[in-house]
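Record 1 of the preview.
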Amino acid sequence: MLPTVGIAGPGEPDESQAAIERFLKASQQPVLLEPGEEHFSLVPGRYALHRDGVRLTLHAWDEHRNLVRRVTGHKAEQTGRLELIVEMFPRRSGKVLLIDLARPAAASVATREKRLSFREQFRTLLSRQFPLWKIAELSSELDLEHSLSARYPRAMLKRGSSALAAIGVSPHGAGADGVLTFGLIWLDHLRQRTPNLTVEGLVLFLPQGQERTTCLRLRWLDPSLAQWQVYVYAPEGHAGQADLKDYGNVDTRLEPYCDYRAGLSGQVLGWVERIAADQAVALTGKRDGGVSLSVRGMEFARAKGERLEFGLTQKVLAREPNLKEIEGIARELARLRAQDAADRENPLYRAQPECWLESQARAHLADIDASLEPAPLYGQVPAFAGGERGVLDLLAAERTGRLAVLELKASEDVHLPLQALDYWLRVEWHLERGEFSERGYFPGISLVRKPPRLLLIAPALDFHPKTETILRYFSPSIPVERIGLGVEWRKKLRVIFRVRGSGSPC
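->
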């Protein structure tokens, strides 16, 4: 690390110019940060350092902005970071930072400054849309005690004895789908903290094009508990309120069911049945008509049509001489992923816990809920247009014909309730249209068009403490239950508690 130097005075620009040039020469990804503003990339053709006698000027620009600052000194010269003293209008001093984003420690400073920048943009959005309300509180700090993220700036608006909770999403980072989770936590926190105020509802600000998931979820929250408002803002800063009624269409599809036995060639079906003779091997039909071969949730082979592929990290095409090798992989997985394995730190034991939990749920469905038919049992249907999710889904039917959505999570996740809602509302969508029976699902079962049950299943100690808070705001039309499992669920699936709605375990 370079030594820290003293502040160079206005009449001594040489040291500051040399420090800036040293920083730029040593940096791989230099940027200029002014507190509360978005950074400028200091790439050739986008900045200039001018010297006119004792006057040193730093000029940076991009497609939309332009910044000119007179440098009057510098301090805190460190590897990957240089703080400059600059002259601000009118005749006052300020600071700008030069940061090398290629260095992780320095990049964290840039992340914080970016958050501060959007916090001020969020302040402007609030002032424009709620001119008669006072911004009584505005923060983008992490609050672990109350499970509030630093990713989303949050505010309390106040007018007389009324208040609104507000939260925003920056246009520069991912995370729009997570904002409602923390918005509900913030709303509930304000209601608990300020009993003298009536916190009427929650206002969310989202970038244009990133509002769909949140608006769709809000349609399934209880309107009697809060006012739900979404404002969508454009890059230029203009914002408008979204009409939640316009977000009724769901990005989902339900492919016709195809039994893998009908889709595999005779030779490949014979190979699959030979490998599955090992009792530890499970066969799971896939949406595309293929079949997955796994041991306690870890896939080691898959088959479709005339192809059998195998491997743990990268699949290769199998031929008949490979069958003994594939059977050996299955036996080794069964040893390493045994319920009573001696080495529980082995990567193959610890890998893919949700998949292992799914395999346990499939094998012991009656232990979870005796009213559910053990078969057929489908995984990951309907399909999401948005890609992968952090939760594994199973779809079952009761003997009465009512559907049940099982959402499985083996570790603590504050987003579990709303991720489960995403899947539930898609199941409800297809059920209302009679598409499950039409497309070959649940043959022989007469499905009833009642709202599907929603079962959140996780180890009892791994439900996030805010799960109850979030479920409190669900529409009463969603029959949701939490099922807590014993810590040794890999050995035996044992239900520790079963709670309906947002109640607390006894």
